[in-house]
Design goal:
The chain contains 3 helices and 12 strands. By secondary structure, it is of the alpha+beta class. The chain folds into 2 domains: 78 residues, Elongation Factor Tu (Ef-tu), domain 3 (Beta Barrel), CATH 2.40.30; 83 residues, Beta Barrel (Elongation Factor Tu (Ef-tu), domain 3), CATH 2.40.30. Strands 1-2-5-4-3-6 form a 6-stranded antiparallel β-barrel. The protein starts with 7 loop residues before the first strand and ends in an 8-residue tail after the last helix.
Length: 209
């Protein structure tokens, strides 16, 4: 699990295309200081498993499913990425609970003089986003300031702009989005409840053990 508090900005130093996958090497002196084979590191919000650590760099494999859902399909050597190690048990929950399982990509639309930044998002994700709720953008835990059918806005403080890749985003850039997993669980449980209620209302019978 992660909390969306970026520890450092890393740099992609190598990209190798594999069969239905890709292998990335990323420079991150801080996150590799205690990392080893099998550890989890979030790369711009994507939870990836460390394959190898060498001289302040770590290597990860990115499977087809992840490439299809995230911006890592377009990553290139020299690109900057947000890095966060998995949160240890008993660690501080500085942002919000994140899995590093990207739900889809959004598009950076722009930022005004007050730091209010707007992103486009896939319409099917909007039902999980609420004003003053949490959303992860490129692995950064953010609070939603405004929401519409296919866009949302967040207010970015100077520290976030400096300490993450969001400060260098330009209009049209893809970003990784992870909505609040609690909202998805609530929806699934509510759907089952509503379905049962409709079934009983329409005269269905239900056996219970």
């Amino acid at each position: 699990m992660f909390t969306g508090i970026v520890e450092e900005i890393g740099e992609v130093t190598a990209v190798e295309q594999l069969t239905n996958a890709a292998r990335l090497r990323v420079r991150g002196p801080l996150v590799t200081s205690d990392a080893g084979h099998g550890d989890s590191i979030a790369v711009s919000g994507v939870c990836l498993t460390v394959v190898e650590v060498t001289g302040g760099e770590f290597t990860v494999d990115v499977v087809h499913e992840t490439l299809q859902r995230s911006s890592l399909a377009k990553v290139a050597v020299g690109d900057r990425v947000n890095l966060e190690r998995a949160t240890p048990a008993g660690g501080r929950l500085g942002g919000h609970i994140m899995q590093g399982h990207v739900d889809g990509t959004g598009v950076f639309l722009g930022r005004d003089e007050n730091g209010v930044t707007t992103f486009a998002m896939p319409g099917h994700l909007s039902r999980y986003v609420v004003e003053k709720g949490s959303i992860a953008v490129d692995g950064v835990s953010l609070t939603v300031a405004a929401i519409s059918a296919d866009q949302f806005a967040v207010a970015l403080i100077p520290t976030t702009l400096e300490a993450t890749t969001l400060g260098g985003r330009e209009a049209g850039d893809l970003v990784n989005l992870e909505v609040d997993v609690v909202a998805k669980y609530v929806e699934k449980l509510a759907e089952a409840h509503i379905r049962d209620q409709v079934h009983n209302r329409d005269g269905g019978t239900e056996e219970r053990s």
